[in-house]
User: What shape does this take?
Amino acid sequence: MTAMSSESFGIPRHPLDVRPIGNVYTATKVSCTGRFSRLPEEVFVQILEHLEPTSLLRLGATNRSLYAFSRLDELWKNFFIT
Assistant: This one.
């Protein structure tokens, strides 16, 4: 059985090739977030909310998945809107 790509369904690829957690069972690649991939996305974002801006930037420099998470607007609003 061959896996169908998301393009065959008309769904564009994420620019950083990040896939939502819901696709974990159909993904062909191993997640780059390691054990964090076991957490729901909402819980992982709550953990990231406790980091300082420099730590978020450093975390985002490690791989594509963490880069996408570390650039979420919700995380950065807390630093600029207080």
